[in-house]
Amino acid sequence: MFFIMNYDAVIVASGKGERAKLGYNKVFYRMSDGRSVLEHAASLFVEDEDCKKIVIVTNRENFDEVFSNEKVVLTVGGQERKDSVGNGLKLCESEYVFIHDGARPFLDRRMLEKLKDKVVEDKAVILGRYAIDTIKIVENEKIVKTIDRNKVFLAETPQAFDRKLIEDCYERCEDIVFTDDASLAESLGYTVSVVNDEYENRKLTKEEDFRGL
């Protein structure tokens, strides 16, 4: 299905990445081709004509390290992730917004296209994958419940929204605790759809994640 659409991408890249033990912000790690993790994370948005603006949210001291592109604008990160995303949203103008982690450099183009189609249909959608392993609920090192893994969906990014919808969420989020933008939308009564990720879209977090890149 083909839609005419336009979107802005907000890429969150302001974390310290202490678990990576690099001594600097992990999104600026240079991969084997010489490009940073952040540049890889943004590459499909740079190439996509439907993406009109790429808002990179990072620490002010890292501004000079961000790759140069006519689509890219910079803003400073906040104390928490929701503050950083909120700062990024203030610069968005397109009909839709894609929120992506700067430490996910392996997004597949086919998955991006599926997200684009789905967000036009449903206004809120996330990329992720269904659990493969058996899922246990544990308390005090004891299993208290086994849940149906077919109903467990592991959230990734990008997470895509109608811009007015996600702006409404952030205007109302002051007292809400949430770990990703989809959970914020859910808590405010919005229905969020999913796209099952068929490819490798892992987030680089720990020291071992950077080996062989």
- How much strand content do the residues show? 25-35%
Element-level helix/strand string: EHEEHEHEEEEHHE
Strands, count = 9
Shape: globular
Number of helices: 5
Oligomerization category of the chains in this entry: single chain
Q: What composes the largest sheet?
A: 7 strands, mixed
Radius of gyration: 17 Å
Order of strands across the main sheet: 3-2-1-4-8-5-9
Topology:
Blueprint (H helix, E strand, L loop, with lengths): L6 E7 L23 H11 L3 E8 L13 E5 L4 H9 L6 E6 L7 H14 L1 E7 L4 E5 L2 E6 L5 E10 H9 L9 H7 L5 E4 L17
Parallel strand pairs: 1-2, 1-4, 2-3, 5-9
Antiparallel strand pairs: 4-8, 5-8, 6-7
Characterise this structure.
About 25% of the residues lie in helices and about 25% in strands. It has helices at about 35-45, 80-90, 110-120, 165-170, 180-185, and strands at about 5-15, 50-60, 70-75, 95-100, 125-130, 135-140, 140-145, 155-160, 195.
